[in-house]
Amino acid sequence: MTDEITYAPAAELAARIRKRELSAREVVQAHLDRLDDVNPQINAVVTVDPEGALAAARDADDRLARGQEAGPLHGLPIAFKDTHLTRGMRTTHGSPLFADHVPDEDELLVERIQAAGAIRIGKTNVPEFAAGSHTFNPVFGATRNPYDPTRSAGGSSGGAAAALAAGLHPIADGSDMGGSLRNPASFCNVVGLRPTPGRVPSHPASDPWDTLAVAGPMGRTVADAALLLSVMAGPDPRCPLSLDTPGAPFRAPLEADLRGLRVAWTADLGGRVPVDPEVTAVLEPQLRVFEELGCRVTEDCPDLDGAEDVFRTRRAQLFAQGLGELLDAHPGTLKSSLVWNIEEGRKLTGADLARATAAHARVHLAATDFFSRYDVLLAPVSQVVPFDADLEYPAVVGGQEQHSYLDWMRSAYFITVLGTPALSVPAGFTPGGLPVGLQVVAAPRAELTALRAAHAYETATGHGLRRPTLPHS
């Protein structure tokens, strides 16, 4: 019964709870039991509150019994990313400096998800200050990949992705600057959606005008990610970039006829990034699926010249702005890659920022032109398959040496600069059983296009149905 509940789609679980075929207490307890059983092997959920979760589940059942309206996530357990503020539950950011930090407020997305009926069971692991696409930190250690615990689960939403894959909870929140929703989804055979900037407003935010960092949903299916997006999205007057469109339309069925859909494919972002042959060997045969669905598939890529400078410059500025004072106050306490990124930001001049701003505008116009000719862009999510969890980052990709913790993430962060929605959908496995994700990108604000294309592909292939075989503890 536990496995039947813990691997059921989130939308199905929520429907069964509303019909009172299952109680919220049964659902929460099943996930807590699963967590006790397998979390020690992967270290995905790092703070757990079983008593609080079960009390909230009892309250959810009581409200349903009294005939009160149930939200779209009523009774579904969730562990929030450990960089997202949770009132009364510690939020460590993966840093010893915040190991005992207990916020007195919920972040906006946490507030919205709980208002929709979700039940907080804990927090998921992150890299230190969410820096990097491999999840490890000095507070909790590394998160392991459920498909091979010797490998990375990706990051920075690595705990969230690993927990989804292992059946620890049915939906998960995350955030994404350089691929932090997409890379871990690719590594863990789940779905991660980076929305258009402003689709999911963030508050509080250190820079409310920033378009690189966004929050978004994760799920084991495209429909479950869309369900979570439906409650995360929507305007907020405190967020100057937030879009006016409400989130409810994302709960509509995703079935669509893809015949005639204009699809572009690029294996290496137009020759701009190295990609390991293991990745392309899995992805290239997937193009046939889109052709069989009636899509017109063409090899092409947006003009991404300048995207490197835009991302590196803006990221460094944001790190110096957000973490510089902390570095000065606590020298020697931050990981070396984080210190390097902050110091890179401190070297920037006004001319550097002006150059990056102009390049960003040019890349945006190139994206606008590209998506006037295509509906969807397909590309690798990650340039590598899940690597050794004891490494900070892969040293070589496609025969090319990687010099920093950012270099191997270009296939995700170049797409970040476009300002478009992009999701990772399970696309198959290497001969050694490691997951590979396909990146599905659509025009700005066209999340539904990306979701429908990914849903049709997911339905046709079933790659996301393959579960990890973790031994019971």
Give the distance, in angstroms, between the N- and C-terminal Cα atoms: 18 Å
C-alpha Rg (nearest Å)? 21 Å
Structural class: alpha+beta
The average pLDDT score comes to 97
Helicity level, as a percent range? 25-40%
What is the CATH topology?
Amidase signature (AS) enzymes
Number of helices: 15
- The total tally of domains equals 1
How would you describe the overall organization of this protein?
The chain is of the alpha+beta class. β16 and β17 (435-442) form a beta hairpin. The model has no long low-confidence stretch (mean pLDDT 97). It has helices spanning 2-6, 10-18, 24-42, 50-65, 108-115, 158-165, 182-188, 222-232, 277-283, 287-292, 307-329, 336-346, 350-373, 410-418, 447-461, and strands at 45-48, 77-81, 119-124, 136-137, 141-142, 144-145, 148-152, 171-176, 191-194, 214-219, 262-265, 296-299, 376-380, 396-397, 400-401, 422-429, 435-442. The strands form five sheets. Strands 8-10-9-16-17-13-11-12 form an eight-stranded mixed beta sheet. α3 runs antiparallel to α4 (50-65), α11 (307-329) packs across α12 (336-346) and α11 crosses α14. The protein has a single domain, classed as Alpha-Beta Complex (Amidase signature (AS) enzymes). It contains 15 helices and 17 strands. Helix content is 38%, strand content 16%.
Summary of the model, kept short:
The protein is of the alpha+beta class and 473 residues long. The protein is built from 15 helices and 17 strands. The protein has a single domain (2-465), classed as Amidase signature (AS) domain (Amidase signature (AS) enzymes).
